[in-house]
Model the fold of this input.
Amino acid sequence: MDTVNQNSTFEEKLAGFEACCRKHGLKLTPQRIAIYKTLISTDSHPTADEVYQMVRTEISNISLDTVNRTLLTLTEIGAAFQVEGTGQPRRFDGGLEDHQHFLCIKCGKVIDFQHDALGDIHIPDEVQGQFKILRKTVYLEGFCSVCAEKEL
Done:
């Protein structure tokens, strides 16, 4: 899904998702569509359980396992990202435009930010020769402004 940018509309993102599923031979099931719509409708970087709770309002008989497997499939085909981090449940991001993440280690909030220099990190030739680089990510941890103020 390399045609998505921060100015893409909801409908453009959904069309890109449908094309991505077709490209990877995946059926466009109501469950997949509902999970993807939920993911791109929030900037909270939800866990699988949070997506499950939201999708259940639309598809009452969906299972947490289905949501979890679908989110992992979305990351495998490039329709979503798994936000990196330590010691927490996996968090997912439907925002495919170039951006970075900040995790508050106190409240757990994940915040998107975009800094061009971080997106343009040079990959050393010796690394490029050893691997096929699919994505570069920058992930920062610390205290958000609310939690930092409480620490004072």
Notes: The first strand starts at residue 81 and ends at 83.
